[in-house]
Amino acid sequence: MESSGASTQSEARVSREKLIRMIRSKKKPEFLRHLWWKFPKFKNDPKWRRPRGIDNPIRMKEKGYPPIVSVGYRTPRCIRGLHPTGLRPVVVHSTKELESLDPSEVIIYIGSTVGAKKRAEIVSRAKELGFLIANAR
User: Fold this and answer.
1) Per residue in 32-83, pLDDT tens?
2) Which of 38, 50, 57, 78 could disulfide-pair with 62, CB 3.0 to 4.6 Å?
3) What is d(CA 135, CA 121) in angstroms, rounded to the nearest whole number?
4) Whole-prediction pTM value?
5) E strands in the chain
6) How far apart are CA 117 and CA 94, in angstroms?
7) d(CA 103, CA 98)
8) Dihedral sign for Cα atoms in the order 17, 18, 22, 25
């Protein structure tokens, strides 16, 4: 039990430069549905659908066919969900929410429902506090 706690602490101690390197180096194939190249109705919407056919070569992971979605392609826990800058994204709707956040750990996204006047207030206050803003406009 103690060893599992130690691994999460070591993940938290990973430097930001190393996180950024890990985020940039992660490579995932583009998972598209079976026969997306053959039928026009799939070309318009080629998102992943699990192949379930009895003789489907993708399901059987045959050579020469696209990869099938599996757990092995998941990103490491220490970089999962992070912005490419290595910061954790947070959605903000008011200037009051900025006070409880740490600029060295998070990057700000201003909520989509925030109006122009309030958005300007949030941007100016966030710059004073030293936050990075991903959708400042």
Assistant:
1) 888 888 888 888 888 899 999 999 999 999 999 989 999 988 888 888 888 9
2) 57
3) 14
4) 0.68
5) 88-92, 106-110, 132-133
6) 11
7) 9
8) positive
